């Protein structure tokens, strides 16, 4: 079930060494799928202009620091494909199975502009995340950590809005 891939992946000027250990095929398949999905719409990171896949890879790297499963790493890599690329849920289920599908579903924001002002939308997402399995909360924490690093470094004005929201989300 496991095999070793002793190479890192380079995207632009950045190098990711996520694959210096035994990697489950599910994780590699998720990386390939997420790379294709985000690349298919030429999605870039807001502040750096890097290919968007650098964010899910960073989230997976953070998740690797905690006790984790291949399904958690796969979901970390796929966590934005439903809301950003509009990949249907049934595709995640068929390709990656029910556990990854469940995790990605929990990680997909349910609030929309129709839910009202930003504070109401964030409250809706926070209340839902509070019910999520601990594995999902671990992945979300990795997402928050990576986004916080980027936002604080590149958008101090928005960080004054974002940071209190994340403190509220984690409380």
Quick gist of this model?
The protein is mainly alpha-helical and 171 residues long.
List keywords for this structure.
171 residues, mainly alpha
Query: Portion of residues in helices?
Result: 55-70%
Mean pLDDT: 87
Say how many strands there are: 4
The poorly predicted ranges are 1-11
User: How much of the residues is beta strand, in percent?
Assistant: 5-15%
Largest sheet: 2 strands, antiparallel
Helix-and-strand structural type: mainly alpha
| Assembly category | single chain
Radius of gyration, in Å, reads: 16 Å
Give the distance, in angstroms, between the N- and C-terminal Cα atoms.
38 Å
The total count of helices amounts to: 8
What's the shape?
A: globular
Question: How would you characterize the overall build of this protein?
Answer:
The chain is 63% helix and 6% strand. The protein is mainly α. The radius of gyration is 16 Å and the shape is globular. The termini are far apart. Mean pLDDT is 87; it is low at 1-11.
């Amino acid at each position: 079930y496991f095999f070793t891939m002793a190479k890192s992946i380079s995207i632009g000027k950045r190098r990711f060494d996520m694959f210096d250990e035994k990697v489950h095929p599910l994780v590699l398949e998720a990386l390939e799928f997420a790379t294709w999905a985000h690349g298919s719409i030429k999605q870039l990171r807001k502040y750096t202009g890097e290919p968007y896949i650098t964010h899910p890879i960073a989230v997976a790297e953070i998740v690797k620091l905690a006790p984790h499963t291949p399904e958690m790493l796969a979901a970390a890599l796929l966590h934005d494909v439903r809301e950003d690329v509009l990949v249907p849920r049934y595709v995640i289920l068929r390709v990656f199975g029910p556990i990854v599908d469940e995790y990605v579903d929990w990680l997909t924001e349910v609030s929309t502009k129709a839910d009202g002002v930003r504070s109401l939308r964030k409250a809706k997402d926070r209340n839902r995340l509070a019910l999520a399995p601990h594995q999902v909360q671990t992945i979300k924490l990795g997402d928050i950590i990576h986004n916080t690093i980027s936002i604080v470094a590149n958008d101090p004005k928005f960080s004054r809005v974002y940071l209190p929201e994340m403190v509220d989300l984690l409380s």
